[in-house]
Every structure is written in structure tokens, then in C-alpha cells.
Design a protein that fits this description.
With 173 residues, this protein is mainly α. A hairpin with a 4-residue loop joins β1 and β2.
Length: 173
């Protein structure tokens, strides 16, 4: 059994070494650029998860999300970050971050929704089916979508996510 394992290990090692050799005269670094990154989405999601965790670590009140260094970093990523944030919308992990607007702690999914709204303002009535004629939002809080978190929770986050994706795709065309 040890002999077979050794042969397999050497075969795999030889395969990896031959992949780095190039007969076209270009360096192995150049040929690596041509290989697609199959786990890019997983890597981006893991990196975003770290950022969301950092925001939670240093922000105690949702009012301060956008002014935190990590919050600004996510917002500065622009629309490229939206598709990764969408992956977190359904995350029900409760954070140690208080929303005075909702009078409760928020979830990681709600943090992702707030950041997505800060990157690209959402049409609240379209996505939540709530028409806010008085435009009453949260006091001293620039997170517009935060006022509607109760409605998103009531309608099911999965349904909100579906509507958000449809809107995002339509807004690009």
C-alpha cells in the first residue's frame, strides 16, 4: 500500500511540474494567467465574509457602518461587490450590531443588504411592496433600506433577494 501511495504522489508531482513547463518560450507565470480561476466566487465570498466580520467587530451601531474603514472599503468596491453581497442576504447570523431604527440587533444578511443599498440605491417600494408616502425613515441614519428591514423579514428574505436580482439585472440593460 505504501508503494502505491508513493507512486501516486510522484505521478502527481510530475504532472504539476510538467504543467509549469512551456514549449512556447513564455514563462510559467505567463501560462498561469491563461488558466481560469475556478474558485473565484468562493474566494470573493470568503473575502467578503472577512470584511463583514470586521465591520461587526468595530461597529456597534448600524448608523456607523458607512463611516467605518471596512464599510467604506466595501462601498468603494462599487457595483462589483453587489453580486457577492447578494450571497449573504439570506444569512441569519445575528450580529452584535444594534439598529436603533429597528430596535434590535441585525443579522449578517441585513448588514449585506444595507451595504448593497449604500453602493447602489434601491427602489424601496418596488423591492419591498411598501409605499412610504411620508418618506419617514430612521432618525439620524443614512441607511435608507434599514427602515424597511421589518418588511423584508416579513416578506421572506429569499423573495426580496429574488426581486433584488431581477431589479439589478434590469437596471444594467
Amino acid at each position: 500500500m505504501k508503494y502505491i501511495t508513493t507512486i501516486i504522489c510522484f505521478s502527481v508531482l510530475a504532472l504539476f511540474m510538467s504543467c509549469g513547463n512551456s514549449t512556447s518560450g513564455s514563462s510559467s507565470d505567463d501560462s498561469r494567467e491563461l488558466i481560469p480561476e475556478p474558485d473565484k466566487d468562493l474566494r470573493l465570498k470568503a473575502e467578503m465574509n472577512v470584511r463583514l466580520n470586521e465591520i461587526e467587530k468595530y461597529v456597534m451601531d448600524t448608523k456607523n457602518i458607512a463611516s467605518s474603514s471596512m464599510g467604506m472599503e466595501v462601498i468603494d468596491m462599487g457595483e462589483d461587490a453587489l453580486w457577492t453581497l447578494i450571497d449573504f442576504f439570506n444569512d441569519t447570523t445575528e450580529l452584535k450590531m444594534y439598529s436603533s431604527c429597528q430596535r434590535r440587533m441585525i443579522t449578517k444578511g441585513e448588514l449585506a443588504i444595507i451595504l448593497a443599498d449604500r453602493i447602489k440605491g434601491m427602489p424601496y417600494a418596488l423591492l419591498t411592496n411598501i409605499q412610504n408616502c411620508t418618506m419617514e425613515l430612521c432618525d439620524n441614519n443614512d441607511n435608507g433600506i434599514e427602515y424597511y428591514l421589518w418588511a423584508i423579514k416579513e416578506m421572506e428574505v429569499g423573495e426580496f433577494r429574488k426581486r433584488y436580482i431581477e431589479w439589478l439585472v434590469d437596471s444594467k440593460s
